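Today's session is about reading a structure prediction critically. Students often jump straight to the picture, but the first step is always the sequence itself: look for stretches that repeat, for charged clusters, for runs of hydrophobic residues. Only then move on to the predicted structure, which in these notes is written as discrete structure tokens rather than atom positions. Here is the chain we will use throughout the hour.
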Amino acid sequence: MKNTATSITPNSFIKTLSFLHMGIMAGPVVLGIFFYTQVQNPHLDFSDSGDVFLAIIPLIAITGIFLGGFIFKKMIGSIPKDLGLRQKLARFQTASIIKYAFLEGPALFSIVIFQNTQNLAHLIIAAFLIFYLFLQKPTKDKVERHLDLLGEEKAKFNRYDQPLSE
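Below is the predicted structure for this chain, in token form.
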């Protein structure tokens, strides 16, 4: 019987992480479309002094972008150089999911506030966050660059359909 733990390939890793990325991204997209179609009178107003969320939402969005990137870099930077490729990829996946969550959370919050205020400014901020999340899509090159794969590790990672050993 084949051991499924050893059947992880670089190709399957990228596909799995891409699937997780798209799944995380799908939530705000679907919710945004749903709320947009349900709102009766959407309007764009950046000058509504009674809308405290016009100050809070951008702050939360910027915090999510920078905090997600900071935690991602810290987690990637703490990976020991002598760790095996499979373990490095597992930690990369964890760091990536955390970064995606720091973008998804503010986008969802902004979409919910849009539904309550009907101010399109909040939906535009959510769309920006979703677009930025889309740009974070995992690729082979990004994984190689962030993990600083060199030599034998890079050669292993470039063998797309070869199972990764410990």
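Discussion point for the tutorial: The CA atoms of residues 94 and 157 lie 18 Å apart.
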